[in-house]
Amino acid sequence: EPTLSDVQAAAQFTEPKDAPVVAAALASGASYLASFDRAHLVGNKRIEQATGLRILTAGDLLAELRQMGRT
Question: Is this structure's pTM higher than 0.85?
């Protein structure tokens, strides 16, 4: 579970409503984040560069994992 400090840090490079989601992904050690929020998360290079997360739609994530032979 992300701390308040984690959420505040995430809010520096994402929308405030999305900061808890991004902070939780980081706190869990995730490499990927699946989302349907194309307006603020999916493909947002600023977030990806700041966090190292790959943010994709669920379908795109599944396709990428299949290409990697992980499914």
Answer: yes
